[in-house]
Amino acid sequence: MKKTALLNAAISQVIATMGHGDTLVIGDVGLPAPAGVPVIDLAVTRGVPDFMTVLTTVLTELQVEFHIVADEMQSVSPALAAQIATLDLPQARSMSHEAFKQATARAKAHIRTGECTPYANIILGAGVVF
């Protein structure tokens, strides 16, 4: 049995196969997943599971070098932006929501949460542990 907090086999498998610079998307229930990017759909109902629980759990296993959020998050969902800012995440980047959606097309996988907070989306860039 796994010792880390992340129990979802599909997410663990994606993280295990990520190389330096590969990206992983964690998105709200409304973020479209581009064709060709595998979707790990965790959404059960509105708000379940929530974005921050999924993000903090993924961070127990993934070495992150950079992260990207949409510019709009700061003005539309400032409480969520503040929560993300409290995490020990390196190299914050932001871009328009439209550019963000285009960037998701290069992701290794897209994790869909049940989150309904606007712009509750993040791209995590894999780092190295050495």
- Let me know the largest β-sheet: 6 strands, mixed
Write down how many β-strands occur, each being a DSSP E stretch of 2 or more residues: 6
> Which outline best applies?
globular
Radius of gyration: 13 Å
Class by SSE composition: alpha/beta
Alpha carbon gap, first and last residue: 26 Å
- What's the number of helices? 5
Low-confidence runs: none
Taken in chain order, the helices and strands follow as: HEEHEHHEHEE
What oligomerization state is this entry in?
single chain
Beta-strand content estimate: 15-25%
Roughly what is the average pLDDT, rounded to an integer? 96
State the helicity in percent bands: 25-40%
Could you walk me through the main structural features you see in this protein, from its secondary elements to its overall organization?
It is built from five helices and six strands, in the order H-E-E-H-E-H-H-E-H-E-E. It has 130 residues and is α/β, with parallel strands linked by helices. Strands 2-5-1-6-3-4 form a six-stranded mixed beta sheet. It is globular, with a radius of gyration of 13 Å.
